Give the backbone structure.
Amino acid sequence: MPSNSRAKRADTVARADTATTKAPAHSRRLSSIVSSLGVVVSASGGPDRHDDPVPNSPLTPPLLFAHRGGRAHAPENTLEAFVLALQLGATGLESDVWCTADGVPVLHHDGRIGRMLRRRTIPTLALQDLPPEVPTLADLYARVGSQIPLSLDVKETEAVSDILRVASDHGALPQLWLCHPDSELLARWRDLDSQVVLVHSTRLERMSSGLERWAADLADAGIDAVNLPEPDWSGGLVSLFRRFGLRCLGWDAQHPRQIDRLLRMHLDGIFGDHVDRLVDGATLLHGEF
């Protein structure tokens, strides 16, 4: 990487480091959530997913994922946004992940860099060609650690091995949630690692079989969770997925009434841009949060 680009990227990371993210109450909350995820640690020190209890009860309190780092509060998918989200009380982080031409996973929403007709896609660019504010996955782990649940929407399926490598290097696999709309692809990823949490992100309208058949197929494939937009969820649907040992996640919960609806259905995790609204809603329902 040219020296000026390297210096700019290092300065971006350093600016994010000026904020403190480990408030005692927040650390206790994260520890409680991590322990409630039901991951059994094997003698070798890693989790053994095959011995996990069936998650037929909700995570209490639920995970509050800051969508794109909580983009209502700071520029999306930046280290500053992720750090601020944790300070505001998020108990999980969410982003989209791409891989550069030189094999480096980075966090960015649509994968396009530049303006209008001069735009290029991240897979065609080396890391040194990206703006310094685009963080690498390794940058994020170095900043916030490996114990915070991180949900990644995988944009390039061939990048999964690089994503897993970086997460493994930081001891973060048990807290890595990989999301994708293709359940068959997710099933193949299970063969790559038994620790990572696999999430089927979809919509009810895209279902090709009955609800019960769908839930059974996901469970049989080793998929851990279902992620649906807020309007798709109902109490009956939550109960159905729980019968098959699947976690229930809801995305695009932006307004207090949407957040409250999902919280009262006892979903396991909620994704939103407004971390303060997520925390306020969870506090009202669960007390001190």
About this structure: Confidence is low (pLDDT under 50) at residues 20-25, 33-54. Residues 3-17 form the longest helix (15 residues). The domain at 3-286 is CATH 3.20.20.190 (TIM Barrel).
